[in-house]
Amino acid sequence: MSQREIQSEPVIASRLSQAQISQWREQGYTLVNGLITPALQQQLLDLADATFPAAGSAAAEAVTDFGSNGALVFPSPHTIFNEISLDAVLLQAVADLLGTEISQLRITQSDLWPKYGRPERQSERDNRDQRMHVDYPNHSLVHPPRWETPEAVELILYYSDAADCGGETAVVPRTGPQDPAYRWPIIDAPGIGDLRFINDRVAAETYLSAVAPEVAEFRAALYEREARVAYRPGDVLLYRHDTWHRGTPLKQGARRLAHNMTFRVASAEWVSTLHPGWAWSAYRESQFFERWIGKASVLQRCVMGFPAPGNAYWNPETLAAVTARYGVFGFDPAPYRTQV
Ligand SMILES: O=C(O)CCC(=O)C(=O)O
Ligand SMILES: [Fe+2]
After folding, report:
1. Which ligand approaches the C-alpha of residue 228 most closely?
2. What digits encode the pLDDT tens for the residues 70-89?
3. CB 288 less than 6 A from any atom of ligand 1
4. Does the Cβ of 245 fall within 6 Å of ligand 1?
5. N or C: which end of the chain has fewer CB within 10 A?
6. Which atom belonging to ligand 1 lies closest to the Cα atom of 245?
């Protein structure tokens, strides 16, 4: 396997450059820094550091798959988590990639999670050394649309340093419309069609060699071409549901903190919501969720699915009713009134 490395490029004046946008649209990824304010990121890093088991602890040994098990997901009682999940600069970057407006985005995943370095895989479902994959099967009821018209952006915001942790995410850069690695449909992976879901690379490729040798051979070329993301704290890997990629083993005894987020366009209702969402958060003693709605910006609310100003939902009665619910938490009805 190659050790080609990808280094992040800064954003200029808080916006992705045309080159960064084109790289994502054509090659399926771009790695940037400067989207998240370092002081904000440090606050969330401190929280995550205190939330997750230390490397080497017994609790860490038990963690062998993706996610925080609900510990740091959207919406969170910790406002800093919600602020970073719906950061204005981040949302603008996602909108620029999709060629749309922030008001057209919907958040479907925000999960900050630890990955630990271990010498051995625990089972074939272990994420230690992942099989090459695309993420759409558990994000979409269908298949990503034509490459030129993407409907979602996935991203990983890193809080750790690859120099300390290893565990670089690997991606297969798409070379162009004729790239054989991106042959259509994108189905050459465990868990798609009748191929069994296996996360571990060695177990997956052994299985595929036996049941689908042509698929195994195709995938061997993907591993040959993978490039590793040499992430630093604050780097954001922007990628897609149809980008070939995988997680690689961390250094033994290391803990990597990374934050996966996904945004879809509002019209793509077949793209699922992976985090638990807000529903049960609205019944908490602390009323953290209602407080968050009260203080969130109009665009942040919009990306959560709250009706935008001008939406047919709004009329004097609904405006008064929603104000009755959230006014006590600081909700200002004015932006919604202007267009009713
Ligand atoms: O851990 C990583 O770097 C990538 C994880 C990933 O791709 C996944 O869990 O789907
Ligand atoms: Fe993935």
Report:
1. 1
2. 999 999 999 999 999 999 99
3. no
4. yes
5. N
6. 7
Pick the CATH number of 4-275 from 2.60.120.620, 3.30.420.140, 3.40.50.1460, 2.60.40.10: 2.60.120.620
The tens digit of pLDDT for each residue in 267-299 reads 999 999 998 889 899 999 999 999 999 999 999
Alpha carbons within 13 A on the beta-carbon side of 175: 9
Stretch 128-147: mean pLDDT: 98
Ligand 2 center to 336 CA (angstroms): 38
| Separation CA 131–CA 152 (nearest Å) | 22
Cα–Cα distance measured from residue 180 to residue 198, given in angstroms and rounded to the nearest whole number:
23
Whether the CB of 169 sits within 6 Å of ligand 1: yes
Verdict on whether the full-model pTM lies above 0.90: yes
CB-proximal residues (5 Å) to ion ligand 2: 135
- Name the burial class of residue 334, with classes exposed (0-12), middle (13-18) and buried (19+) by CB atoms within 10 angstroms of its CB: exposed
Q: What percent of the chain has pLDDT over 70?
A: 99
259 Cβ inside 6 Å of ligand 1: no
DSSP state of 112: E
Q: Decide whether any atom of ligand 1 lies within 6 Å of the 249 Cβ.
A: no
Question: How much distance in Å is there from the Cα of 72 to the middle of ligand 1?
Answer: 17
236 C-beta neighbours (distance < 10 Å), count:
22
Query: 304-332, pLDDT tens digit by residue?
Result: 999 999 999 999 999 999 999 999 999 99
Reference 168, options 97, 107, 246; nearest CA is 246
Q: Where are the beta strands (DSSP E) in the chain?
A: 4-6, 9-10, 29-33, 105-116, 152-158, 170-171, 227-229, 236-239, 245-246, 255-265
Q: Contact, 117 vs 250, CB < 8 A? A: yes
Q: Measured from the CB, is residue 66 less than 6 Å from ligand 1? A: yes
